[in-house]
Amino acid sequence: MQSAKDMVLRLLIVDDSVEAAEAIVSGLRNAGIAVRPSRPESEEALDALLAGPPLELVLAAEDSRTLPPATVMQRVDATGKDLPVILLVDAIDDTVLLQATASGAAGIALRRQIDQVEAIARKEWTALESRRALRKLESQVRETERRCDALIDSSRDPIAYVHEGMHIRANSAYLEMFGFDSFEDIEGMSLLDMVAPQHVDDFKQLLKRLGKGEAPPPRLEMEARTLEGESFPAVMEFTAATYEGEACQQVILRRQEFDPELAREVEELRQRDQATGLLNRPTFLRQLEDTVTDAARNASHHALLLVEPDHYAKLLQDLGLDAADKLIAACARRLQSALGPDDVVARFGEHQFAVLRAGSDYHGTVALAEAVRAAFAAAVLDVDDRSLNATASIGGVQIGQKIASVTAVLGKAHEGVQSAAGVGGNRVEIFDPGAVDRAEEERVEAWVNRIRDAIDGEGFVMHYQPLISLHGEPVEMYDAYLRMRGEGGELVQPLTFLQIAEEHGLLWEIDRWVVGRAIADIGERLRSGHRTTLLVRINEVSLQDDSLLQHIREQLAKHGAEGQLLVLQLPESKVFTHLKAAQAFQQRVAELGVRVGLEQFGSGLNSFQLLSHFNADMLKLDREFTEELAGSAEHQERVREIAAKAREMGKQTIANFVQDAGSMTILFGAGIDYAQGHFLAQAGPQMDYDFN
């Protein structure tokens, strides 16, 4: 299953108490789960939700009278869907446990113990996604097998499948090559019968090795023999395969109509990258697949490294685009100088290399990666008459049974490269499933230092996206987004570092920087004749004391800025779970003229109920409503409802992530006050949008 950061939990919660249901939703969100909740209040509403878009979980309160658990289970079973139901109880005893088991509930959770609710929810969600993935995979396998069967039957290449040396399948081209009329004539016949007598003994040994699970040779040159006894030069290519659930070998046999030596040279050229002389990506991937398979079957250990020269674009800019091949070749030579004779090395991307070392344990992998890093850092690259200083970022993976998947191996190696480059480059990051904690600690420590440097120096920058007024006179208003400068000038998105900042108590310092920067911008804009309103995000940690409030007061005075031009945004769910602190904060900043808005509005079970306790000035709709607005009548109706209620309460509304003209028309008709999104204008470092 993907991580909760990448997925949305579509949750149906049955509870007579809106407050109790909202508390569970907020608790799950605080635990990092993106929740899209629904709460039916009748059997008809329950049936409609079950018939709608797919759900992941149902949480049913044991004491619900509107929709008792037995009714919920009956309705869920009637749909025939794989939908786990978790029973929410106040206490667990033998009776409750037996009743829950008899009803078919997937689990039981104590309603007031949100940590346990979260753990049970994650467990059942993971199990559900695993079942869905398995069903999808089985379907894909069946479809793939069907297509492969059709391709093999129509292929001009002679192809056969062999199990324990016997033919279990062959296509028409294979039968024609050896003079057979139908597969029945060859079924069960030994592959040895297709080999010329002088090769039989060697071929027997090969079949024995294959029977023991050894890897087949990728290419075997020999003489084959037809049904009439005619011999001809041939090449066999072996690939491990399965047929009807049985492990076997796929054999492609071709006549050799030309010089074998020339064929070998052509094959060698086909496997090489022309600029560097290294293996190319497809050839390396085949080697990697064999290595990963060996790790899965034999519990062996191997090393994979992905290597990227740091600031490659700048190096190329200095040399000129016409020197691209020479630069990449120089990098390849530098890389090869740090490798051993048995290491497999390839050009894996435009300026990325891959290294595979068989039989390497974790310490050996680290040593190899450090040797490569040092080879780049300790010497210059010679390109024609130019000498360049170049370091490298390296992401490695310790391949073993715990990560015996090509996709997972490459994914982790890529993450390592990106993370190493993101904290300055000239760095090695190795993922070892057996030592995840150690690697994670090192990565986090580097990011914490990077964040602290950004706060203390000039490592953060702001980008600004205009908000377009849909009604009335245009107003200069921007939403400010935080970015971090990378070592090579690239921008690092907040999702990369905010979680680490939160875990290490740095969010309040980031909030101070963001708010201080925004107030300075407002003051500067005022002095240049622009009354510009800025929206910035703060975190709930800044509600806990008066430090941010005092900082705002000091910065407004320092920069001569007006408080009413600053809007502080908080997520709806965080305000709900920190309501008293949020109320006190809002009242205090209002004395300075500063306004407070709610983000992700409408994502809760009863968002407008929150407004009876919290006086937000602006409501920014949850992005769910606008991402598929043009194609969802339900979202359109919800947007109209929010806009109408907000207007009655004197609140301004904002729709973000607007993606098309159709959505703009809908938002205008619904009465939304402001819109923003890439369709209108992208965020950038300058506030230069023409609002007139």
From TrEMBL:
PROSITE patterns documented for this protein: EAL, GGDEF
SMART domains (alphabetical): EAL, GGDEF, PAS
Keyword Cytoplasm set for record: no
Listed InterPro entries: CheY-like_superfamily, Cyclic-di-GMP_PDE-like, EAL_dom, EAL_sf, GGDEF_dom, Nucleotide_cyclase, PAS, PAS-like_dom_sf
Annotated ranges, domain GGDEF: 300-433
MF-aspect GO terms: cyclic-guanylate-specific phosphodiesterase activity
CDD domains: EAL, GGDEF
Highest taxon above the source species: Bacteria
Coiled coil: 127-154
Domain EAL: 444-692
Alphabetical keyword list: Coiled coil
One Pfam family in the UniProt entry: GGDEF
Record NCBIfam families: GGDEF, sensory_box
PANTHER family: CYCLIC DI-GMP PHOSPHODIESTERASE PDED-RELATED, CYCLIC DI-GMP PHOSPHODIESTERASE PDEF
Designated name of the protein: Membrane protein
